[in-house]
Each structure stands twice: as structure tokens, then as C-alpha cells.
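Researcher: Let's do a round of design. I'm pasting the C-alpha cells now; please hold your answer until I've finished.
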């Protein structure tokens, strides 16, 4: 059955009639307790696939909408619309959905937010995610502020891969970008703590915004050569709460390469996998590498293998989705795992062909990055 998508209108009962394969690895909760049923014969042998044939293997889980930074390209300086705590999925709810998705072919999981390290219990959650059968790679994206205190705990939780956002190497500019005073020192200490604790490789994300930090491209390249980090420049996307995105503010992949090459010649290298978001380059003298994530100037939607689960339990099939799929309602109203699996199949089937940023009638979604999870 691998790779064949059932008709999304089929109920699990109908799917059961289609196959007599033994079920692997899915648990189903029922009113009478938590037990294994073979409602979904065949599901476990299948992968989530959309109507364009893209297989979905990557999941981003936003565990909170709270963040201690207010980056200019992401969160409002004065957010008024945090979700009430009761609306956020509990760790048990996240784990249940994660297990179902592992059974449907998700292999890579990234824990994000908001700022994920702010939510109490996140380290234990990561440890439990790592134990889910099928998850081959568990990572976390953080602003790094709490890493000095938490890097050791993350090692104890099984050393997830860590990505830290770092948008300037200059304290004043960093404050201007994060709208959080005296934050650079803490983030740099966080990167050091992660490396010292053995959380390797540490990745560093830099969102470039013209007029703010594009004069630091070469300084960042120098950092990538000096430190044991994997650096990723990211093009600014129209997902900011202030709605200040303009095409002129986007520093494109081409410009980034053009800025670095005269100082440190670059050689493009193959991506690790076709669905990898970053274009990869190594320095011609062999010392380190950089990546560029260019969703605006070089969209990679055709290879997209990602879905996102928001902190309030909505499934998003694209960063720029105008429609979301409410899983929390199912989870909190007695749905069986088989129903939820069916729901995921149906939602993924409808995944958008692409983000449409470059279309003349593009409309920025209401939900901004801090509420989606990058
Ligand atoms: N708080 C964590 C952090 O700072 O990394 C995780 C959440 S943050 C939303 C995840 C990633 O999204 C970060 O690397 C951030 O730089 C990126 N991001 C946020 N808004 C963006 C935008 N408008 N365009 C491009 N990347 C963005």
C-alpha cells in the first residue's frame, strides 16, 4: 500500500475493507481505555501524500505562542491576542497526535513556537518525542535566550538538534531587531552552552531585513568559518505581525551569494535531500559551509514535505494557508485515533500547491509567524 493514497472520502471502516495487512504501531484510544485496535489496517503502511503527489514526512510543532522577544519580522511589539492557556494543547495531546502522525509516515519533527523553551515541561516532551517509534530526527528552534540554563537538560533529553535564531552580531542592532534590550549577550552564551554541552551541530538562522542587518552578511560568513556552527540565511517572508513586509526589504539569495563571494569564494553543494529548504554552499578553501533559505526568490514548494501543528491545535498544510484544520476539536471531543488519522489524510490531501507570495493577488494570512511556528 505504500505511497497509495486512499480516497479521502473513505472512512477508516472502508479502508479496513481495502486491505488485510497486519497493523504496525498505531494505538487507538477508546472510551473504554487505551488499547490497540486494528481499525486502520493499511494506514501504518502508508505515508501522508497530497493531491500533487508530495509525500509529507516533516512536522513542525509550535508548543507555545508566547515569546520573550518581539522580532521586527515576526511578532508585534505589543501582542494583545495570546491564546488562553486552556486553548493550548497539553503535552499529552501533542504526544497523542505525534504518535498518530508517526504511524502515518512523519519522520522528522521540529519543536518550535513562540519560544519553545519558555513552556514548562518542554524538555521532557522532547525526550518523549524521541522515544516515539518512527521519529528519526527531533530538533528544536529557539531564540537561545534560555539555553545557558537548559542546554544540559536538552542533552539529558537525548540531544535534539538545536537551531538558534541570531539576527545580528552587533548588540545595538540585535536589540533593534528583537526589541529586547541586552539580549545578544544571553543568546551568544546560549550558543556557547549548546556547543559545550555537545548539542552538535548547532544551526544558526539569520533572517535578513534590508536596512537592518544586510551589512553583516560577510561578518556572519566569517562566524561560520570560525565556529562549529551551520549557518542559514533566511529571506524575510510576509508573515510579520506589523505587516511591514515589502519586497524591497527582502535580501535575496543571489544578493547574499554576491556579497560573500568576493571575500570568501563559495561553491554550491548538493542538498541533503530534495525537500531540504536550504541551498547549500561550502567555502572554496574547505573551511565550513553556509545555507540560504530563499522561499521568496527561489520558492521550493514543489518539494515541500512539511505540515505544521499550532499550539492551539490547528493543522496547517502551508505557512501561508488561508484555511486551517482544527484537530483540537477532535482530540477534545472523544475522537478515536483512527478518526484523527483519517482527518490528517484528508487535510494533507488538500495541501496548497504553493505559497503564492509572488502572485499579484497574494494575501498575507491572518496568523503570523509567532502563532504558526517557523
Ligand atoms: N522563538 C524561536 C526562534 O526565535 O527561533 C522559534 C520560533 S521562530 C517563529 C522560528 C523561526 O522563524 C526563526 O528562525 C525566525 O527567525 C523565523 N521567522 C520568523 N518570522 C519570519 C519571517 N517573517 N520571515 C522569515 N523567517 C521568519
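Researcher: That's everything. Go ahead.
Model: Designed sequence:
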Amino acid at each position: 500500500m505504500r505511497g497509495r493514497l486512499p480516497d479521502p472520502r473513505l472512512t477508516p471502516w472502508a479502508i479496513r475493507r481495502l486491505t488485510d495487512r497486519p497493523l504496525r504501531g498505531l494505538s487507538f484510544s477508546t472510551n473504554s481505555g487505551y488499547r490497540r485496535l486494528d481499525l486502520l489496517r493499511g494506514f501504518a503502511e502508508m505515508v501522508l501524500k497530497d493531491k500533487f503527489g508530495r509525500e509529507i514526512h516533516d512536522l513542525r510543532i509550535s508548543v507555545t505562542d508566547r515569546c520573550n522577544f518581539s522580532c521586527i519580522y515576526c511578532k508585534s511589539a505589543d501582542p494583545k491576542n495570546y491564546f488562553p492557556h486552556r486553548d493550548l494543547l497539553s503535552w499529552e495531546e501533542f504526544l497523542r497526535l505525534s504518535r498518530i502522525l508517526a504511524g502515518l509516515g512523519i519522520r522528522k519533527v521540529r519543536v518550535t513556537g513562540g519560544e519553545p523553551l519558555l513552556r514548562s515541561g518542554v524538555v521532557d516532551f522532547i525526550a518523549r518525542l524521541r522515544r516515539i517509534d518512527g521519529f528519526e530526527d527531533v530538533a528544536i528552534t529557539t531564540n537561545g535566550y534560555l539555553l545557558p540554563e537548559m542546554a544540559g537538560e536538552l542533552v539529558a533529553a537525548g540531544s535534539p538538534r538545536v537551531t538558534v535564531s541570531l539576527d545580528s552580531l552587533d548588540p545595538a542592532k540585535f536589540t533593534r531587531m528583537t526589541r529586547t534590550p541586552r539580549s545578544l549577550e544571553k543568546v551568544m552564551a546560549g550558543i556557547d552552552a549548546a556547543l559545550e554541552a555537545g548539542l552538535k551541530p548547532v544551526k544558526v538562522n539569520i533572517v535578513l531585513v534590508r536596512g537592518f542587518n544586510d551589512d553583516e552578511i560577510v561578518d556572519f560568513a566569517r562566524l561560520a568559518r570560525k565556529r562549529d556552527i551551520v549557518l542559514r540565511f533566511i529571506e524575510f517572508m510576509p508573515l510579520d505581525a506589523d505587516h511591514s513586509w515589502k519586497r524591497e526589504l527582502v535580501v535575496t539569495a543571489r544578493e547574499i551569494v554576491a556579497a560573500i563571494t568576493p571575500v570568501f569564494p563559495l561553491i554550491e553543494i548538493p542538498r541533503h535531500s530534495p525537500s531540504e529548504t536550504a541551498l547549500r554552499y561550502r567555502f572554496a578553501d574547505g573551511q565550513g559551509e553556509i545555507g540560504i533559505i530563499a522561499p521568496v526568490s527561489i520558492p521550493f514548494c514543489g518539494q515541500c514535505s512539511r505540515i505544521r501543528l499550532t499550539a492551539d491545535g490547528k493543522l496547517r498544510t502551508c505557512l501561508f494557508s488561508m484555511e486551517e484544520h482544527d484537530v483540537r476539536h477532535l482530540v477534545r471531543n472523544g475522537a478515536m485515533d483512527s478518526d484523527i488519522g483519517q482527518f490528517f489524510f484528508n487535510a494533507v490531501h488538500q495541501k496548497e500547491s504553493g505559497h503564492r507570495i509572488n502572485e499579484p493577488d497574494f494575501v498575507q494570512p491572518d496568523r503570523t509567524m509567532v502563532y504558526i511556528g517557523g
